[in-house]
Amino acid sequence: MTVFILSVSEYIYSTNRIYEEAKKRGHIVKVINHTECSVKLSNKKRGVFYKGRNIISDAKAIIPRIGTTTTKHGSFVVKEFEMNDVFTTSTSSGIVLSQDKVKSLQVLSKHKIQIPETIFSVNPNDINTQINLLGGAPIVIKLHEGTQGKGVMLAESNQSAKSIIDTMYSIHKPILLQEFIKESKSEDIRAFVVGDKVVATMKRSGVKNDFRSNIHLGGKGSVVRLTDEEEKIAIKAAKELGLTIAGVDLIRSKRGLLVLEVNSTPGLQGIEECTKVNIAEKIIKHIEATCS
């Protein structure tokens, strides 16, 4: 089978791991830089052109590794493959949806998946009400486009929250406000979903005096087990956003498991090293089972 990995570089750890495992299992694998692809729409011959060739019919499956800076164009490329009946591990709509924090939380909430209490507004004249709707400080303030824990702030008093929010509104930075889950103790869980299974789970603990738990910010990973019910929640969250490969970020609270966000391009390095699970191989096996 011919498999395309849509990625800006073959040297990215996760891209390279998936490439290696696909080759080991006898597949023809190519890393296609989606930012160098052109999509041609036509009533006759349409396609995706890469290095002068129409590659729309060359692959049986694609694995999109679309980052936040190339979401729009990358999703257009994925959509064209979808429309040509090429299997994709993430739908174009799922990629766009998962990278929009507000819309993805709206969808999860609609499907009865528990999330932190969240406020989205652009009204600079109503900041006190917005803070009070979350029960007051401490509250978490997130930039829409933030990734890997960047653009996430903790306001520990109503005054500091008001100051940060007012500043963000004044420079037209879209933000969302969330309740602070104190009992999580700066820990969350990354559940790696492949198909209809959670194949690996890692608890992430933040460094001292930092409530964020992201590995990229110095957080530490350790193996953790989910209950059957928690696994079902992670799988459902990925499914409702149109993703068969996803990193689902979870937090345990007094009222149960909450979904923080769902990542359509989850990294493999930290979680593979922590859990010793060959996730890249499981991704390829999933594609084989689906496309056979």
Question: What would the keywords be for this entry?
Answer:
Rossmann fold; 3 domains; 9 helices; Dna Ligase, domain 1; 5-stranded antiparallel beta sheet; globular; alpha+beta; single chain
In words, what does this structure look like?
By secondary structure, this protein is α+β, with helices and mostly antiparallel strands. The protein has 3 domains: 2-90, Rossmann fold (3-Layer(aba) Sandwich), CATH 3.40.50.20; 98-114 and 184-291, 2-Layer Sandwich (D-amino Acid Aminotransferase, Chain A, domain 1), CATH 3.30.470.20; 118-180, Dna Ligase, domain 1. The protein is 33% helix and 28% strand. It has 9 helices and 16 strands. The chain has helices at residues 13-24, 71-83, 92-98, 101-110, 127-133, 158-170, 228-240, 269-275, 279-291; strands spanning 2-6, 28-32, 37-40, 47-50, 53-54, 61-64, 87-88, 118-120, 139-143, 152-155, 175-179, 187-194, 197-205, 220-223, 245-253, 256-263. It has a 5-stranded antiparallel sheet with strand order 14-13-12-15-16, with helices on both faces. Strand 3 (37-40) and strand 4 (47-50) form a beta hairpin. Helix 1 (13-24) packs across helix 9 (279-291) and helix 2 runs antiparallel to helix 3.
